[in-house]
Design a protein that fits this description.
globular; TIM Barrel; 8-stranded parallel β-barrel; 14 strands; two-stranded parallel ribbon; 16 helices; about 40% helix; alpha/beta; about 500 residues
Length: about 500
């Protein structure tokens, strides 16, 4: 048996962004509005109030549609990657990126989702991006659905609740596969597909006040089923259209510990982890887990399926598993314990862990635990496609940004990744979130910064958009150059 030492040769080091948080140009060159384009920044809301930031009603959708400005809606402007992509990709290449995860904005290709023909100018934009990446030897990893479905499909069909959206998504995906088959090998279907229960509008275009009374949860499961079917269908199409292509699912890894060793706490944590695995189980094993099926029966939740749906799921499973990991949580049966924030989720605060400026607890060992759990359960290749910390950076008088806190965060997570690899986990890549400062997914803030590259823009959209390198830029550059050996 070969002893594994350190990161494997050819490990895909890189970073990740999403179209709706980075591109801007929300109404340029034929692009239609997406669900992200109505995400409002509310300065008077606590940054910990995710429900407030993510709340959606028919009324505020109508208000946003009538407002042509981007002042209140930061994702409309992003950081203007649409016009700065060459500059940004050059900076990523300077860091040594082997790969970059991006998404294709569905509404840039099909503005309402229902056009007979795709928007050629939208296709050409990604032609240019992929050509530039090829020139810089950066391997694309492309997400087809990253919180940016056409707003028109949400308004007309209540998003993924309507079965017709499956066919519309398959059409969009096939256009992407045909157009970019010589540029893209790695594809992801739905970003954090499990998030449909935490923010159903952003994930699936579901408008809660348009769901049948008392049936919101059932409606969400119906939409989720349609996404499972769509994922399986496009996985088959991708394999057919692009020989040698690889398609992965994408999970929010919400690793949960029992708050104490009390059996009730252990049971609570077990149930949380099993629910989290459900979303990958369907896409890896090709079937609904029996415990989930039983849970749906107990709740009297009925999912309408077409005759061949279960066969479609079974016959078209994914090739690898990608996931985001930002923090761990604890779970307790005891009420009244102090809560803390996470990735659009709350949990009981772990007294053994520090927290970020936004209350997310920092747990590098939890990443190693997550890797071991995922690989043991699925025995499929893994890639971490989101990991990082949102922080308040300070620009010094000379323009420098000393972000040792970010360097320390990554250093400890990378060490745990290496240990997991040495224990036998098949981890083939890592893309940090978000490489460059972009608009926050949950709070629509700019001041919540994740990048190695600073972008001169504030929460209100003021600034020059000038890009500058943080200390972490040079640190990550060295990590990639040495394939992780510089960690020691």
């Amino acid at each position: 048996m070969t002893t594994i030492k350190g990161f494997p040769k050819g490990f895909l080091w890189g970073g990740a962004i999403a179209a709706n948080q980075a591109e801007g140009a929300w109404n340029i060159d034929g692009k239609g509005p997406s669900v992200a384009d109505i995400a409002m920044y509310r300065s008077n809301l606590s940054v910990e109030d995710y429900e407030g930031h993510l709340a959606v009603t028919s009324e505020n959708i109508d208000r946003a549609i009538k407002d042509p400005d981007d002042k209140k809606y930061p994702k409309r402007r992003g950081v203007d990657f649409y016009h700065h992509y060459k500059e940004d990709l050059a900076l990523f290449a300077e860091m040594g990126f082997k790969t970059l995860r991006i998404s294709i904005a569905w509404s840039r290709i099909f503005p309402t989702g229902e056009e007979a023909e795709p928007n050629e100018k939208g296709l050409q934009f990604y032609d240019r991006v992929f050509a530039e990446m090829k020139k810089l030897n950066i391997e694309p990893i492309v997400t087809l659905s990253h919180y940016e479905m056409p707003l028109a499909l949400s308004v007309k069909y209540n998003g993924w609740v309507e079965r017709k959206v499956v066919d519309l998504f398959v059409k969009f995906a096939n256009v992407c596969f045909e157009r970019y088959q010589h540029a893209v090998k790695y594809w992801l279907t739905f970003n954090e597909i499990d998030s449909i229960h935490r923010h159903s509008f952003i994930t699936a275009g579901i408008i809660p006040d348009r769901c049948p009374e008392g049936k919101v949860e059932e409606t969400v499961y119906q939409a989720l089923h349609h996404q499972f079917v769509a994922s399986a269908l496009v996985t088959a199409d991708c394999h057919r259209i692009i020989p040698g292509s690889q398609v992965g699912c994408m999970l929010t890894k919400l690793t949960t510990y029992p708050h104490t060793c009390h059996p009730n706490d252990v049971e609570q944590a077990l149930k949380q982890n099993l629910e989290n695995y459900f979303y990958a189980d369907v896409q890896v094993f090709g079937e609904y887990p029996p415990l989930i099926t039983r849970m749906l029966e107990r709740k009297n939740i009925h999912i309408q399926m077409e005759a061949d749906d279960l066969n479609i799921l079974k016959e078209n499973t994914v090739d690898f598993i990608s996931f985001s990991y930002y923090m761990s949580l604890t779970e307790s049966a005891q009420e009244g314990l102090e809560q803390t924030e996470g990735n659009t989720i709350r949990g009981v605060k772990n007294p053994y862990l520090p927290s970020t400026d936004w209350g997310w607890q920092i747990d590098p060992v939890g990443l190693k635990i997550s890797l071991i759990e995922l690989y043991d359960r699925y025995q499929k290749p893994l890639i971490i496609v989101e990991n990082g910390m949102g922080a308040k950076d300070v620009v010094e008088s000379d323009g420098s940004i000393h972000d040792d806190y970010r360097i320390n965060y990554f250093k400890e997570h990378f060490r745990q990744m290496r240990e997991a690899i040495e224990e036998g986990v098949d981890l083939f890549g890592y893309t940090s979130w978000g490489s460059i400062d972009i608009i926050s997914a949950g709070t629509s803030q700019m001041s919540k910064r994740y990048g190695f590259i600073h972008v001169d823009q504030d929460d209100d959209g003021n600034g020059t958009l000038k890009r500058s390198r943080k200390d972490s830029f040079y640190w990550y550059q060295k990590v990639i150059e040495t394939n992780g050996e510089s960690l020691d």
